Amino acid sequence: MVARLWNAYKETYSGLPRSAWLLALAQFVNASGTMVVFFLTLYLTTKLNFGLERAGAAMSVYGLGMLAGTLVGGALSDRLGAHRVQRYSLVASGLSLATLRLLSSYAWILAVTLLWGFCAAALYPANASALAALCTEALRPKGFVLLRLANNLGATIGPVAGGILARHDYRYLFWVDAATCLLAALAFLVFFREGAPRPQTPAAEGGRAAWWRDGPLLAVLLSGLGMALVFAQLFSTWGPYLKESNGLDEPSIGLLLAVNTLLIVLFQMPLIHAVQRLSGTAVSAAGAVLIALGFGLLDLGHGWVYLACTVVVWTVGEMLTFPTLSAMVSLRASGSTQGKYQGLYSLAFSLGIVAGPVAGARLGEAAGWGALWTATGALGLAVAALLSALALRWDGRR
């Protein structure tokens, strides 16, 4: 029985090319040091004594940098090659993080955070474009899941280690995060010396309208924006809420994040494998409902166990929604526009990162935490409704 279960589990990972695994390995190295973004709000409020609104504004500035970075990164991926853009992005991100730790002036922190957001975001469309080039259309959902697994496996280490490091000295977070960016850049240099081939998607090359007239694509982009507004709270108001309303310290918050990443590492690929024959729009809509419930019910209970249960709910939703949306975007693009389309999707997500922290902080301070999480849940349900409506026109598959 155990052997059959293990063989079935391994089968869900079968078929992916070696180069996709190497791409995921480089991403794992980078993600294993990702910790500053989770604790920057706490760092600014508790160590530099900036108010919550100013800290939220700093995260929004990070999102502004992401807006430009996603567009530039996507366009450069089509021109220079996705692997080269990833190397440049990681080196620049590492240097930005090392610089950020040395600053105490709010204006300079905003400037460097803007640059950091730009450099970090350029990685995402390049990464997605490289994956689309390395995998066939049939394997792309698995490929995008593999990248998310690599990111989340690394992120299982990052937040927990970040919480422990933050207890001793916040500056360690910046040094470790910067070092792993540079190590990942070195991994890309070793594994991928030449540019990634362009994906061949002849059915999309001449059969799709321009992106601004492609209704299903616009619906997917709008869904990504809505989900980003929800998930922006995870990087901004979620941590202060847990600290203020539940009395959790940084290591306890890091452990909650580890619940999320560990579930993704263990169950993401089998879950996507199980639903791969279903409509992509239906799968992503179901995921959006779970995300809405996970965040919307946050203020109805207290204690680490209850909070961990909410994390489980929105994590299952995250596993269903995000890789499916990424794969849907790749299927709307032609072989020569993968970078551009992935850049548009990253741009939509970045818009949510820009607006989410400030909107969440202001709503939380003006109306209370309960109002914030109720509004977040309602937004998730609105995204689910949009994806359900899209299902009437397109099932999210080729």
How would you portray this structure in words?
- The chain has about 400 residues and is mostly helical.
- About 80% of the residues lie in helices and about 0% in strands.
- It is built from 16 helices and no strands.
- The longest helix is centred in the last third of the chain and has 30 residues, at about 340-365.
- It starts with a helix and ends in an 8-residue tail after the last helix.
Unreliable residue stretches? 200-207
- The helix/strand class is mainly alpha
- Subunit organisation of the chains: single chain
The biggest beta sheet reads:
none
Helical proportion?
over 70%
Tally of alpha and pi helices? 16
- Helix and strand succession? HHHHHHHHHHHHHHHH
> What number is the mean pLDDT?
85
The general outline is globular
Radius of gyration (CA) equals 20 Å
Q: In total, how many beta strands?
A: 0
Strand content: under 5%
Q: Alpha-carbon distance between the termini?
A: 36 Å
